[in-house]
Amino acid sequence: MKKWKVKPFTLFLIVISLLFLIFFPIWMKYHKKNPPADAFDMKLPEWSGIIELWDIPSVQAGKDSHTRWLRNCINSFEQKHPGVFINLRSMDAERLAMYLHGTVNRDILPDIISLGIYNQPVPEELLTDLSCWFEQTELSILRQPALKRVMSDDRLIAVPWAMGCYALYVNCDAVLPMEQDPMPEKMNYHLMDSIAKENSGQRQSGKKVIDYYGFCTYNNTNSKPLLGMIYQEGGKISNSAAGRLFQEWLNSEMKIFPPDLAFMSYSSAFRLFALEKRAAMLLGDSKAVFDMRKLQESGKGLEYRIYPLPLDEESTFYMEQIAAYGLLTQNNKEKERLCIQFLKELLQEESQRKLADIGLFSVLKGIQLYIEDEEMKMLEDSLEHTAIMPYGMHEQAAQSIRDTIFPAE
After folding, report:
1. How does DSSP assign 266-290, residue by residue?
2. Rounded to whole angstroms, what are the CA distances from 2 to 5, 9, 340?
3. When you count CB atoms within 10 A of the terminal residue's CB, does the N or C end of the chain come out lower?
4. How far apart are CA 165 and CA 328, in angstroms?
5. Are 221 and 119 in contact (CB under 8 A)?
6. Check: CATH 3.40.190.10 for 166-318+400-405?
7. Is 102 left (phi over 0), alpha (psi -120 to 50) or beta?
8. Residue-range domain boundaries for the chain
9. How far is 4 from 262, CA to CA, in rounded Å?
10. Going residue by residue through the chain (409 aa), what tens digit of pLDDT does each one get?
11. Residue 367: exposure state from Cβ atoms within 10 A (0-12, 13-18, ≥19)
């Protein structure tokens, strides 16, 4: 009997053909029952459309811009909710005031808006009470100052999402009191007073007479570092060592601080301290940390030490640097739910940890963003002593102190 000789390749083709004939019908039957998802045939949510978010910057990022962090949160949310888009619009307080001039028309306002700090332009009755949307466990993980920031009596009128912090920056080349050398590990108001007085006055530079100051800071609509230093427990300047010290400086014949302190911008104060080196101390926020580092990297910086603000015994800090978004009243319940879902995602640990990318601090308890950054960790730790803000029971006292230290503001 003649034997058939089959080449290996021919045998391979025969096997493949047999497998195709056996399994192809089964595969076709399965895919008829389970067709692949069609990107154009996805089921949209019950509501789809555009959520308008107006961002009015109130807390200065330490580096970069907070809008980069916010856009990342928006992109993540939109990917999870096809058909829902968030239109981010940044504007200043002056532009917002134009929309709110006269009778407020709800139809021209956004869905989500930044809460003001010293001035809340949006009528509170237009803000949704979010209390029923948050479990107590969700609120209990917030730092107390952040939670107080968004409470109006029993109403939760906004969601906090980031915190800033103030610190004292001291030029290491500043003239120190004779008994104090080198720069100390801890600052107190007695030493601050000595440094300020030792470094205030005029110096001759060629034919010019140049003013030097012991202390400088800045003041604007949303950020008042000096108020954070002066106002501790009690609500009166005379009740705090810092308050008494500032009054002494104010009444001193020496020019301890620049004459335009009440109107000084951050950039002017920073230039005076870090570039011109005409101020021994700067009171400022975390942006100064990163700006100082940039100068040092370029070879133009100065040696400095950073300190948390000194604290009176058993007292707490005043600090207004808490960013928050409120939700305006909605007619559509599903749209309202989606807006609140977005606000909740800002509080997710993953989102909060990314605040380190912009030099801000988390509103969540127990999250440490700067374990390996000694300077920023010092500021982060000082937030544990923050409890007073210009809201509720402290609002009138804070206003009174503002009128005292910034009478022409």
Report:
1. HHHHHIIIIIS--BSEEEEETHHHH
2. 9, 21, 82
3. N
4. 28
5. yes
6. yes
7. left
8. 49-163+319-369, 166-318+400-405
9. 104
10. 444 555 565 666 666 666 666 665 665 665 555 555 554 555 667 889 999 999 999 899 999 889 999 999 999 999 999 999 999 999 988 888 888 777 777 788 899 999 988 877 788 889 999 999 999 999 999 999 899 889 988 999 999 999 999 999 999 888 776 556 677 788 888 899 999 999 999 888 888 899 999 999 999 888 889 888 887 655 455 567 888 888 889 888 889 999 888 889 999 999 999 999 999 999 999 999 999 999 999 988 889 999 998 876 656 777 889 999 999 999 999 999 999 999 999 999 999 999 999 999 999 998 999 999 999 999 999 998 887 666 665 666 666 666 666 665 5
11. middle
Q: Is the peptide bond before 182 cis (omega within 30 degrees of 0)?
A: yes
Rg for the chain, CA atoms, rounded: 30
Q: Crossing angle, helix 241-251 and helix 189-198, to 10 degrees?
A: 20
Is there a cis peptide before residue 184, judged by omega within 30 degrees of 0?
no
Residues 149, 117: Cα–Cα separation, whole Å: 9
312, two tokens: 């009176």
**Amino acid identity, position 102:** G
As a CATH number, domain 49-163+319-369 is 3.40.190.10
CA 4 to chain centre: 82
Q: How far is CA 364 from the centre of its chain?
A: 13
pTM: 0.83
Query: Residue 166 CA to chain centroid, in angstroms?
Result: 12
Cα–Cα distance measured from residue 33 to residue 200, given in angstroms and rounded to the nearest whole number: 84
Place of tokens 């940890």: 353
d(CA 230, CA 240): 7
